[in-house]
Write a structure and sequence with these properties.
Blueprint: E1 6-10, E2 20-22, E3 27-30, E4 37-38, E5 49-53, E6 58-62, E7 69-71, E8 74-76, E9 78-80, E10 86-89, E11 92-98
Parallel strand pairs: 3-4
Antiparallel strand pairs: 1-2, 1-11, 3-5, 5-6, 6-9, 7-8, 7-10, 10-11
Length: 99
Amino acid sequence: MFLRTARLVPQNVEAGRAAIPLPPKPVTLGGDAGSDIRVGGPGVEAQHARIEANHQGYVLTDLDSRHGTRVNAEPIRERLLRHEDVIQIGAARYVFREG
């Protein structure tokens, strides 16, 4: 399986300051200290969402959070991410970038 490199680029304070490279293994996003990517701000569950790589690319899955996960302002349960998609978890916003 060949994957292009990818990263999450924060767009506001709740998302952090530095770009986050995505590894080929699954990563969790949430407010819990045990999350691989710690997300700040209101409306964020301890284990809110997961990003994992498969043969198609990177897939974002909401982990049944109360406030949901959005991609390009649309609520999602699961979605294959594309270059320049905007991910929102609580108040935190990231841009997904490949390459």
